[in-house]
Amino acid sequence: MIVKAYAKINIALDVLRKQDDGFHELDMVMAPLDLHDSIEISLVPPSFDTLVTCDSFDLTTGEYNLCTIAVNKMREFYKFKEKFRIHIHKRIPMSAGFGGGSSDAAATIHGIIKLLKLQTKESDIIALCRSIGSDVPYFYRLLPSRVQGTGEILTPIIIKNHYYVLIVKPVEGLSTKEVFARYDQMSGEKHDIMPVIEALTSGDDVKLKESMFNALEPAAISLCPEVAEIKQKLTADGVELVSMSGSGSAVFALDKRLNKLEKLAKKYINLGYIVLLTEIKK
After folding, report:
1. How far is CA 113 from the centre of its chain?
2. Which CATH number fits domain 2-156: 3.30.230.10, 3.90.330.10, 2.60.40.60, 3.40.1550.10?
3. Is 190 a catalytic residue?
């Protein structure tokens, strides 16, 4: 069985406060992309152990572990004995702000439910997802959403316009942990997320340009100045809806003009960046 694990972008991201448990309370607008990893899941004999592999040598131990943790938590909750071979065909850039590891875990959960024909309640699955990672509930539901708390409060939103998405990533990636640690050392500006939601719902690109933001950008730029350079270049090239996704290091541009983004993709490939062209998932 093959299950798709879709990437996401943060069209808005605000950090409200750091909780006593070390997690940060966030307020975000997230949208799924058509860009995806493919997760191949198959049953193995009972004498085998579950094995997670990947065709990318860049995959971190933590991202392997999220899929393994997902299997173990599902086995603990649903009491099944089956073992699996899980292979990740990687396309989502890592250390980039697209949530690839969390999406792989959510796709693994979807795949096991289907493969074993498990009878589940969504409330149980969302709680299980939350115990794996803060982004996993979002990836399990996979709708344009306002995401609050530490990822557990999901409110679907409407995105009126259909946007193509140009992704430009410097070779250097960023650690989410390091970006949040740097953010905590800086005085972060607070933002209003409602204008972003209103602009997306009404299809008002002028308002979206004025209101979209990522509160983690200053921290990310202090660690990887290329983020700011890419943003400036894209804006100079005539795309107006430009931001960093998640904790970086990738920058994305939203535009309704596919031809425009196709031309820019060639330019940024020649400049030595990691470049992908996709769209917001329909």
Report:
1. 22
2. 3.30.230.10
3. no
Question: What are the residue boundaries of the structural domains of the chain, listed by start?
Answer: 2-156, 164-279
Per the residue annotation, which of 14, 37, 135, 255 is the catalytic one? 135
- How far is the C-alpha of 164 from the C-alpha of 32, rounded, in Å? 12
Q: Is 8 a catalytic residue?
A: yes
User: Is omega for the bond preceding 102 within 30 degrees of 0, making it cis?
Assistant: no
Say if strands 251-255 and 241-244 run parallel, antiparallel, or are unpaired.
antiparallel
Taking CA atoms, 49 is separated from 2, 79, 97, 191, 231, in Å, by 20, 16, 31, 47, 45
The model's pLDDT over 217-248, given as tens digits with 9 standing for 90+, comes to 999 999 999 999 999 999 999 999 999 999 99
Q: Distances in Å between the alpha carbon of 161 and those of 106, 202, 204, 214?
A: 27, 8, 9, 21
Q: How many CA atoms lie within 13 A of 226 on its CB side?
A: 18
pLDDT digits (tens, 9 = 90+) for 140-165: 999 999 999 988 899 999 999 999 99
Cα angle, residue 191 at apex, residues 187 and 197 outer, rounded to 5°:
155
Q: pLDDT tens for residues 56-65?
A: 766 554 555 8
